[in-house]
Design brief:
heterodimer
């Protein structure tokens, strides 16, 4: 069994149908306790007060927003190189989830920024790069929506995603160069001695896992819908050919 | 390829070709900004490099859909695609033609418009230099966006949504270099970064744009 077998939508549908309930279940048992633990059973942080608890939504959604774009880049490349039909549908399916995560990260950040920094928005490098990421998602989705033929749309959006990734990375560095920031540096990483305190770390880990699983579940559902949509489109075309 | 360049330039210069439209737009934007922010010389001279950059960028955007759209509609793009020059070359030549009729005039006009905006004396030189280096990247990125949207009926709005985020790094470095130069600070880092973006765009984007055109001509 290789990855390429799942370019056949029938095989993908069969496997994803079996996997999906498990992913949803696992997501429920990680995300729900993670959020409850984070919101109600962690102490208030000095300096931050209760507002620190929004971190359990803010950080995972921000992390997913970036990783979903990376996933779209990989799936777009796979489509360009191998014309893997499921891959490009997954990319389209992921875009809407990615843009939602970006918006959640921006809004929770604004809500958190108001009591902490005294402002909803600052032209901080991290905030600005997220706004730019949001624009890239919008462009990508708009191009999908504008083109009727699904294969043409797949090709063009994949090219856009690849070029866009390069410019998104460039923008990240340009923005860093352009302005100094308010946002704190990374406090969650695998290679550093000092992370956030353990009381906060354990529920955060649960929330991060939960968000990843939530994304996997949503992307599977949406990819299945997309594949059915393509099939419907093909059937529709065939019927019309018969009539004509 | 030279014949194609000459043809494109002639078409653009002719009546209805849109030559000068970008320049007029640039002039109007530079006239409107003081109405919006007030005529104080101090404020105007501080924001002048940034406004000139944003104005040039928008003026450039205005004529992007002409790069391929007309040739696509009357079928000459299909003929060009079957011609013995590679698609990448066609894209590069068309981007060059676009730069010659919009980017270059904008660059030449910017120092003059800078006077309207109370730009201080080294600023004229810096706005000219940064636009001269930066506008080829704008034309090339724009040609890529135009290649993506050429098959669409009303691609104009979508084109700006696709292209403007891609313009961000060029704008940041260009405006930063112009601002620093005007304030007599060292501007070589942003200037070199912008030159890098321009060089990279010219080297790589013709391939992406040609791939998009081939899909659209399929």
């Amino acid at each position: 069994m290789s990855l390429w077998e799942f370019a056949n939508p029938v095989k993908f549908m069969a496997l994803s149908g079996k996997v999906l309930p498990w992913v949803i279940g696992l997501c429920a048992v990680t995300l729900v306790p993670g959020l409850i633990w984070g919101f109600f059973f962690t102490p208030e942080a000095a300096k931050f007060g209760n507002s620190v608890k929004i971190i359990y939504v803010h950080v995972p959604s921000a992390m997913m927003a970036i990783n979903i774009w990376v996933m779209m880049l990989v799936t777009s490349l796979i489509w360009i190189v191998r014309r893997h039909h499921v891959s490009v549908r997954a990319s389209k399916a992921a875009a809407l989830i990615g843009v939602t995560m970006t918006v959640i990260a921006l809004i929770t950040g604004a809500i958190w920024g108001q009591p902490m920094w005294g402002t909803y928005w600052a032209w901080d490098p991290r905030l600005t790069s997220f706004l730019i990421l949001f624009l890239f998602y919008l462009g990508y989705m708009a191009l999908w929506a504008a083109i009727d033929n699904p294969d043409t749309a797949a090709d063009l959006t994949s090219v856009l995603c690849i070029v866009g990734s390069v410019f998104a990375v460039l923008s990240r560095y340009a923005v860093n160069f352009w302005n100094q920031g308010l946002h704190q540096g990374a406090t969650l990483s695998l290679d550093k001695e000092e992370n956030i305190a353990d009381v906060y770390f354990a529920p955060m880990l649960l929330c991060l896992t939960g968000f990843v699983l939530l994304f996997v579940a949503l992307v599977l559902i949406r990819t299945r819908t997309e594949l059915r949509l393509v099939r419907l489109h093909r059937l529709d075309v065939r019927e019309r050919m018969k009539d004509a | 390829m030279i014949a194609l360049l000459v043809r494109d330039l002639r078409l653009a210069m002719r009546a209805g070709g849109g030559f000068g439209l970008g320049l007029a737009f640039f002039l109007i934007v530079s006239t409107l900004v003081p109405f919006g922010v007030g005529p104080e010389a101090a404020i105007l001279s501080r924001i002048a490099p940034g406004i000139l950059w944003v104005g040039a960028l928008l003026a450039c955007l205005l004529s992007l859909d002409r790069i391929f759209q007309l040739d696509f509609e009357d079928g000459s793009l299909d003929l060009l695609a079957t011609a013995p020059i590679p698609m990448e070359g066609i894209v590069a030549v068309k981007a060059l033609a676009h730069w010659l009729v919009t980017g270059l005039p904008l660059t030449l006009a910017a120092p003059v418009l800078g006077t309207l905006m109370n730009l201080e004396s080294p600023g004229h030189y810096w706005i000219f230099i940064t636009l001269l280096i930066g506008t080829p990247a704008l034309s090339m990125i724009g040609a890529f966006g135009a290649a993506l949207t050429v098959g669409l009926k009303r691609g104009g709005l979508l084109l700006s949504l696709l292209v403007l985020p891609l313009y961000i790094p060029t704008l940041i470095f260009g405006a930063e270099a112009a601002t620093r130069g005007t304030a007599d600070l060292s501007a070589s880092t942003p200037l070199l970064m912008m030159a890098g973006i321009t060089a990279g765009s010219i080297a790589l984007l013709p391939f992406a744009a040609a791939a998009a055109l081939r899909v659209n001509l399929r």
